[in-house]
Design a protein that fits this description.
The protein has 264 residues and is mainly beta. The chain has helices at 9-21, 40-64; strands spanning 2-6, 25-29, 78-84, 93-98, 101-107, 110-116, 119-124, 132-142, 145-154, 160-167, 172-179, 182-191, 202-210, 213-218, 221-227, 237-243, 250-263.
Length: 264
């Protein structure tokens, strides 16, 4: 604990009262048995030291108490069913493009998606999920919007139907539906201060999907809850997508730390 030393009996009495509420601080009176009080100047100095010490000890906890707590999205009884650092090619990720040139590369412990002119995405072909929580860490190295896709189902022509949760480097986000590889509808979108803006800033995106209700998380903070009344897709694969935006005709995104939780 901390020890604060004062010298006057009146001040010692005051401190004893404070000590009852803050037992981690020890107070000692050196001359509380003295019948004479110190000068007003000494009392002022002692009390000032007491005040300064109190501020130092309690300022940080007070600041932290206003920080928004992190939210754990997987329900308590769900377990990790898939986990991938994305540091090497395991043959489980198929690449797609929509009217765009691009690439998907495992490089230096990350999975890099690059797109020119439109969008480029990658889908995990090893699993199909109904209700799940899906999390990915991503870094925007260059360009526009990027995010995660889920409940992706493939059509006979090779195009996917899927949900797309994206962010950009300016703090915007969106939740959209794509059908046959084409944009169909935006269910929700807007601005949020939860996004780490700018190039090379990491952001963790996650979605909790239960039936037709989707909870959207950015950096472990719940930012929106969306209901798809048409329930376009009830199951499907997970993936990532890099897309260009206004003023950017090239996008490069680094992905890592993929985790999927499912009911047990």
């Amino acid at each position: 604990g901390y020890t604060i030393i004062f010298g006057t009996k009146p001040l010692y009495t005051l401190i004893k009262t404070f000590k009852k509420k803050h037992s981690q601080i020890k107070f000692i009176s050196l001359i509380h048995t003295s019948k004479k009080f110190l000068s007003q100047r000494h009392i002022f100095i002692a009390f000032a030291l007491f005040a300064i010490t109190t501020v130092i000890l309690y300022y940080k906890p007070q600041v932290n108490s206003f920080e928004k707590p992190e939210i754990s999205y997987p329900p308590a009884n769900w377990k990790i069913s898939y986990q991938n650092s994305m540091s090497k090619d395991d043959g489980e990720w198929a690449n797609q493009n929509y009217n765009a040139s691009g690439s998907a590369t495992f490089w230096d412990d990350i999975y890099m998606l690059s797109a020119e002119n439109n969008s480029y995405y990658s889908v995990n072909t090893s699993n199909d999920y109904k209700d799940f929580a899906y999390q990915v860490q991503m870094i925007t190295a260059n360009g526009g919007s990027s995010g995660i896709i889920f409940r992706a189902t493939i059509n006979p022509d090779g195009n996917y139907n899927y949900y797309y949760f994206w962010i950009d480097s300016k703090g915007n986000y969106g939740f959209q539906i794509y059908k046959d590889g084409n944009y169909l509808n935006t269910l929700r979108g807007g601005y949020t201060p939860m996004i780490n803006q700018g190039r090379y800033e990491p952001n963790t995106l996650a979605v909790l999907a239960q039936k037709n209700v989707f909870k959207l998380y950015i950096n472990k903070q719940l930012i929106d809850t969306v209901t798809d009344n048409e329930n376009i897709n009830t199951h499907g694969r997970i993936g990532m997508r890099a897309g260009v935006s206004a003023g950017n005709d090239y996008t490069s995104i680094y992905y890592s730390k993929v985790i999927v939780w499912t009911p047990q």
